[in-house]
Write a structure and sequence with these properties.
Number of strands: 7
Oligomer: single chain
Strand order of the largest sheet: 3-4-6-5-7
Largest sheet: 5 strands, antiparallel
Order of helices and strands: EEHEEHEEEH
Radius of gyration: 20 Å
Distance between the termini: 48 Å
Length: 178
């Protein structure tokens, strides 16, 4: 079989089509990370470029995380985590949910090459929250985290209706500043 160059010469990367073996100094993961940073994070299950992950801690209680990349609009990770929680609440028959713990932090990404591992901080964000499904609209707040301002009650249908247009956009790019 013939070996093909998939990248222009100035990138100095040689890729063998058969077997997908990299012959260069940059790993496929590093290339994908750089390319995914060009577009804002889509609302999607966690993958290259970010997305949501969730786990049911017990019936009606979930931990939800959303990882956004550097090109995503500010606050998108938090909105996406709340939206995902609303989807879970609806799927489990809860008309309301309560965020009992939450945080948003800047991401630190590990970059690996064939010769080293490095870390860089970007303006991407990770939103993490713990939520409980509720049957009543104005349930008493049971805040569990140190940041009491993160705790709130939400109407499941209202969150889905208000955030759906934002979550279904093609991508969430920060405006370019001159």
């Amino acid at each position: 079989m013939k070996r093909l160059k998939l990248c222009p010469r100035h990138f100095a990367l040689w890729i063998t089509c058969i077997g997908g073996i990299m012959k260069g100094r940059i790993s496929l993961v590093a290339i994908m990370t750089v390319l995914s940073a060009c577009a804002g994070t889509h609302y999607q299950k966690l993958g290259v470029g970010g997305g949501y992950s969730d786990k049911q801690m017990e019936p009606g209680r979930w931990e939800v995380r959303f990882l956004s990349n550097v090109a995503s609009t500010e606050g998108f990770a938090e909105k996406a985590a709340i939206y995902r929680t609303a989807e879970l609440a609806q799927a489990n028959g809860y008309p309301y949910f309560q965020v009992v713990s939450g945080s948003v932090r800047f991401n630190t990404h590990a970059i690996a090459t064939s010769t080293s591992i490095g870390y860089m901080t970007s303006k991407g964000q990770t939103a993490k929250l713990v939520a409980v499904g509720k049957r009543e609209k104005n349930s008493e707040l049971n805040c569990e985290g140190p940041d009491r301002s993160a705790c709130a009650n939400f109407d499941t249908a209202q969150v889905l209706n208000e955030l759906r247009p934002i979550m279904k956009q093609a991508g969430h790019r920060r405006p370019v500043k001159d």
